[in-house]
Every structure is written in C-alpha cells, then in structure tokens.
Amino acid sequence: MQYLPMKFARSNDLSNRSCKLILKDPKKRSWHAELNSRGSRVCISFGLDEFFTANDLKEGDTCSFELVENGETPVINFLTHLTKDDQPPPQPATDNHSYFVSTIKPYNIKRCVLHLPVKFAKPNGLTKLKGEMIVKDDRQRLWKIKLKDRGDRVVLSSGWSHFSRANGLKVGDRYKFEIIKKGKRPVVNFHCEYFFPVYFMPC
Description:
Layout: E1 2-3, H1 6-11, E2 19-24, E3 30-38, E4 41-45, H2 48-54, E5 62-69, E6 75-80, E7 99-103, H3 106-110, E8 114-116, H4 118-121, E9 131-136, E10 142-150, E11 153-156, H5 160-166, E12 174-181, E13 187-192, E14 194-197
Parallel strand pairs: 2-6, 9-13
Antiparallel strand pairs: 1-4, 2-3, 3-4, 5-6, 5-14, 7-12, 8-11, 9-10, 10-11, 12-13
C-alpha cells in the first residue's frame, strides 16, 4: 500500500475516490492497481509488490508521479526521481518545443518572482513584452500574472505569489513551463511533479 500526498490527491480530484487505477512505469509498461480513500488519506493498493520489484524500488527511494488521465479509471505515470547531481539542467525551448524544465528555488518563494531563461523568453517573443501572462495550472485554473522585462531577465512578478501558494509550491519542486499561445497576452501551462518517499506497508 502506498499513500499519496494529499496535495496531489486534492488537486487532481482523487481525494474522495475508490476505483481501479493504471500505473505506467518509465518503460511504458502498465500495471493494474486500486485507488482507495481511507478517511483523510488516499492510497494505492493491490499490485504494488510486483510493480516495485519490476522497477527495482526500495523503501526510502524517492519517486515522482503525474496524473495523465482522470476518467473512470485514472492513469498515473510513475517516474523514479533523480538525485540533484543527476538531474539535467533546465531545458530551453526550441522551435518545436516551447518549454523549459527547472526547479523551484528559495528566491522564487521568498521574493515572489519567477525568472524565465533568456533562451526560452527570446524565441517566444517575451523579452520586450509588457503586461500580463495567463498561466494554467494542473487543475486547469487560469491565473493572470504580471510579466516584466528587467534588462537581461524576464520575470513573472505580481500574481506569482498567489499562484505559488494556491498550488502549494515549495523549494525543490520540479516543474515544466510550456508556452501554448503567443501574442500580446501569452498563455502557458505550468506542470509540477509531485515527489514522495516509497514505504512498504501491508494492504
């Protein structure tokens, strides 16, 4: 049995559900399990022993997961977590992939700003843009956040603090920032991975 962080369960409307569940591992293999609500906690049960063994997961390992489908049978991608030294650097946008991947830094929370890499901002027309950006979170909520050009940097400022608090962002969270609409008021998807330690518990 594996408990899910309530932040993840609530943000994806899983906190009051009991249903079949499909887990997909990094090799794209599918595993059938069950999602159960137990009072104020949500857990995955049945089939986890085989899943953990097949993916060489040990107690204390840290993993991340993301909900990719939330229908009658939810589908969750299950990914092993890389250590800080193993993690790849932020990935700038290219002509075909207008996104970057990074982690929440202490100043993102303390100073209430998010810096955008120049290699991402420039090709997407954000370096000279003044005004608002629409940020869509994992719950499909839309947030208006002020976009500012500070010389050699582009930052999200006013509105970022509300967004980060509402989504429970904390230092070390890994996220993907993807532009889906360009123009005077750009629209981006902000996707945050959720991490948790693996524990072995009786079902």
